[in-house]
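User: tokens in, sequence out, please.
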């Protein structure tokens, strides 16, 4: 039961550290609202709605895990419920959180949730951005893989697969925007650093 409560508390801390605190920090330092989605019919806002649903499902899955009689309806993969996979999952989510926090600190005031068309942010190429062009998104995917290993069930698998798909779309939208904003500098950066991992 302790591990069930722990993963719930961890998720709350995770969302505060990854989404809420950086947004508040950028607002205090620059006056800019880092959450730039709106309520339109654009692809960007469609992605935001899907990600909101995914976040809801993550918390739903973790909360449901506290009630075994209800959790069974999520079709848990009992054959995956082994200690080594669970401990691997816990390791992944903690490493991913640290990775994301470092990446967001290195982003500084360039941190955004969504694409900010009104402000030209600085192109980050140092630190974790010298290893991956999208370290924050990479960390999020690792987090979701970890959650699946901790709680292997139909919903957590759906969350992981759907997130890989929707984040791939979001990444390409952001990279298209960065290519327009930073031109040759971004093109050169892309030659040296891969979308997810360093090329050479």
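Assistant: Sequence out:
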């Amino acid at each position: 039961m302790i591990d069930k409560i722990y993963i719930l508390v961890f998720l709350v801390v995770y969302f505060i550290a990854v989404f809420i605190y950086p947004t508040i920090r950028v607002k205090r330092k620059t006056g800019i609202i880092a959450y730039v989605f709106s309520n339109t019919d654009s692809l960007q806002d469609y992605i935001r709605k899907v990600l909101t649903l995914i976040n809801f499902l993550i918390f739903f899955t973790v909360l449901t895990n506290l009630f075994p009689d209800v959790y069974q309806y999520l079709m848990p993969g009992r054959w995956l419920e082994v200690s080594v996979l669970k401990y691997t999952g816990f390791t992944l989510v903690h490493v991913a959180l640290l990775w994301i926090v470092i990446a967001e600190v290195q982003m500084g005031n360039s941190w955004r949730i969504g694409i900010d068309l009104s402000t030209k942010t600085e192109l980050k190429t140092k630190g974790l951005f010298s290893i991956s062009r999208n370290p924050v998104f990479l960390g999020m995917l690792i987090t979701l893989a970890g959650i699946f290993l901790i709680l292997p069930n139909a919903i957590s698998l759906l969350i992981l697969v759907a997130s890989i798909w929707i984040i791939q779309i979001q990444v390409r939208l952001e990279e298209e925007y960065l290519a327009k904003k930073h031109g040759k500098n971004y093109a050169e950066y892309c030659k040296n650093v891969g979308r997810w991992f360093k090329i050479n």
